[in-house]
Amino acid sequence: MFSLRRATRAYAGLARARGNATLQNSSQNVEITTPPPPPASTSAKSESVQTEPSDTAKQSPANPSSTKENVEESTNTKKRGRVWPTKRPSITLDRPRQYSRPIGVGALPVYDEALTYIKRDSKLRKEELEEYKSLLQRAESAPDWNPADIERLRDKIRILEIQSEVNLPSVRWKARNGLADLNQTVYRHLIEQRWREEGALDLLMERIYQMNVVPDMLPEMHPSFDLRVNFPEPPPQSTVLRNRTKRKYQKIEPGVFLLPEQTRKPPMMYTTVFHTEPRLYTMLMVDLDVPDLENQTYQTYLHWLQPNVSLSTFSQSPIPLTTTHTKYIPPHPQKGTHYHRYVLLFVPQAHATERMQIPVPTDEERLGFNYREFAEQYGLDAGRGGGAFMWREVWDETVSKIYQDVLNKLICGL
């Protein structure tokens, strides 16, 4: 930029010099009439004009060192280039994202008015909440209060805890972006509402009823928490990469087809539970489509069983099954059969805090496992809540390897 300006000014000076030379040449051929002498004021003004420095003199400073400094400064400016804004710090658990208004203050007056109304309503609800909390404290300390009335007060407090903050934009933004604090009732409510109303629960129930898990296995099912299952990704097509590639676990959609090789190891199970107090569940995995050749029908097979699994909002994910009651046997669908349905259940136990004593079934008792009789014997009811998942598999060449390595059987002609 600095060199361009200097070149422009030099070119303008050269043009003026050429113009003066042309005027001098033309003045030699033209007779010039001497004008009369100007008045005193005019002559003083002309003298002042003549004594002013020229444009070139104005541009060139008297101190050559300052010129050198200006040139060096312009060169450094060119080298530095444009100064870009600093990079936003990375998002971590210690420094999560923060909520910011989508619209600036005053940009949309109707938005500001709506936000003011929401905050005013939240303040009124919180004042009402404090009144009910103080009333509950007096009721719990008084011996003559009815337990049913105390329970109604607790329900009212839970409702007010949700209503006082559920409409705040910052609360909804955190619930949507994975920054919810599950210690607070309002966030548990929003996450459960999202699970129930935005398709995850609908997809699960659709696959369970389409594949006739209900009523083939159990009469009814009403899941109360979100159960997500991860299995390893499918193996590569190349036999060279099959044993050299470490496969990652990926989330599985309910009802999809999996390869038997993917389910050789137990799945990683993640839960989102909406009750804060620990409750005990019985986990079991069943194959509903094992052929019964003698009776020309199908029977079930128990692949996995673990009672007394404690779950709550703050449970660790994936679920750590440190004590294995009945060991996991991978799915092994028989050759020539239709696809097999594999169902994974977490059923609430009759007493949420009392551990059950269930004998470990033998390998022979696994085949022909009757869930209905088992549930009736131990007081299990999937209609009261729990978690559920299901997928499908068909036979391939890796099933024989599973029989050899896991079941210690050699299968011929399956």
UniProtKB/TrEMBL annotation:
Residues 21-32, 45-68 have a biased composition (Polar residues). SUPFAM superfamilies: PEBP-like (SSF49777). This is PEBP-like protein. InterPro entries: PEBP, PEBP-like_sf, PEBP_euk. It comes from the Eukaryota. It comes from Somion occarium. Residues 19-94 are annotated as: Disordered. Pfam families: PBP.
